[in-house]
Amino acid sequence: MAPGELLPVHLPGLQREFESGVRLFVQSGHEDQVFEQLAELARLVKAPVATDESVPLEIEADIVHARQRTRALALLLGADEFTAQRALTAASELARNVILYAKRGRLDILPRSATRTLFLRSVDRGPGIADLTAVLDGRYKSRTGLGKGLRGVRRLSTHFDVQTSAAGTTVEAEIAL
Amino acid sequence: MNDSVRIPIIELWGQLLVPLQGDVGDAQMHALEVAVLERVRDRGPEGLVLDVSGVEMMDSHLCAVLGRLATAARLMGTRPVICGLSPAIALTLEALDVDLGDVETALGLESALVALGISVAHADARRLDREALGLSPHAEAHETLEVTR
Lengths: 177, 149
Hints:
The complex is a heterodimer of chains A (177) and B (149).
Chain A: H1 11-25, H2 31-44, E1 53-57, H3 61-76, H4 81-102, E2 105-112, E3 117-124, H5 132-137, H6 149-156, E4 159-165, E5 168-176
Antiparallel strand pairs in A: 1-2, 2-3, 3-5, 4-5
Chain B: E1 10-12, E2 15-22, H1 26-43, E3 47-55, H2 60-76, E4 79-83, H3 87-96, E5 104-106, H4 109-115, E6 119-121, H5 123-132, E7 146-148
Parallel strand pairs in B: 2-3, 3-4, 4-5
Antiparallel strand pairs in B: 1-2, 6-7
Helix pairs in contact in B: 1-2
């Protein structure tokens, strides 16, 4: 295990390992006392649980915040550097689209521990995407970027869905970690 | 981490070096783009090295701005090299199906400088040369590191 790879999710396993170590090496008669202290310690170091978050998107700096929360939750679910980068990039594309085209909205970051996936959902009440097919086919070239943001998110995702109308846009992207 | 962190523009050996760091925000990147091009105009460097080894995240937008900066610098008459793409970022850009256009890339800062014609004569090599010539192995301090262009 490399430095920085120890995560709160590893704590229960670590506790088991430590207990077997105690059984082998601690003077008999003292185990109970050590186990008691160990259990107390485990209660204190309560592993943080990845919970659903929603990041409001109103100014450009919120994109950075959305990225940072996505990274934190991905790492909490045990993502490595590569998969965290995918999740982070997808969140960045979605958040930027909201700021750029709808001015405001939100990004929901929903960790799914059971499947080890991160479910991202951007929601806005902007003008909607006029030609979604062109965007997803890569025929659309935006002025500011490469016009590949949304298409890129689809390529990074295991599940991808866009609902868009004049009343707003919702994009769902599930990233495997 | 935030836009208040300034990214330096370093001049060395007739080149400009820009080490991008952390989570580069859009506003920060746009400010940097202008600042770098102004320095290119004012200082006329032979090459421009954009080192992204310290960058935490690169998405299609940041990639586009970097490519645009490199292209603009080339139009102005300097030679741009982007270096230090991490494996995770390179794989993500590949998955996104974006690239840096026809901008020259290098593995790291050292190869970028070599690509721009900077070479370093190592102290070790010089010491061996001196020994072969029967001179004292201890080179003068100013001789130990020779940078040639």
